[in-house]
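INTERNAL AUDIT FORM
Audit reference: QA-55
Scope: verify that the stored structure record matches its stored sequence.
Auditor: D.O.
Record contents follow.
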Amino acid sequence: MNTIKVAVFDDNKNRRLGLELLINATPKMQCVGAFEDCRNVVSNLHKCNPDAVLMDIDMPHVNGVEGVKLICEHFPNIKILMQTVFEDDEKIFASICAGANGYILKKAPPAKLIESIFDVMQGGAPMTPSIARQVLHLFYNQNKKSSRLDFDLSEREHQILSLLVEGLSYKMIAEHCKISYHTVNTHVSHLYRKLQVNSVAEAIKKATKEKIV
């Protein structure tokens, strides 16, 4: 195996130095650059030409997520391993969508960090167990949300559809939602049009099949 060249992006000076020392002390690994943020990420990487980037997600000026987008655009072959002190669903999802190859917490032991760099260079997608669980949960929820958005249901329409699935009549729905029978009927007409169905039974079937509720 050739020596893996690693660039580090982290706004904490002491951590940058620590990571640089750790990487250089590892056989078959070399730190070729250490930077405080991603303001000059493209020119930085042109100069140091790394194989992998260890990227902090929370940095001033230009953060890690934006940095990942730039790296993927200009250096598609560079592997990117994200690091953060937070287990933040939105940032995890944003990092993965931007093109990050792996995601671990900063509190991971040094040995785990080095193992993850080797792993990502071999085509793996290293993640700490807690991050992996969140990613699975996050993608599940995103899939559910996308199904709902496809039909463009309003909050009230979604509520009424849920109540229809539960077996409530128009009259019961009107009482539950504190709206008139006529208003319920209007909402159901809109549901039929948006779901492209012609009956309550068809609406319930589609809602269940498409996981709308």
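Auditor finding: record pair retrieved intact. The first strand starts at residue 4 and ends at 9.
Action required: none
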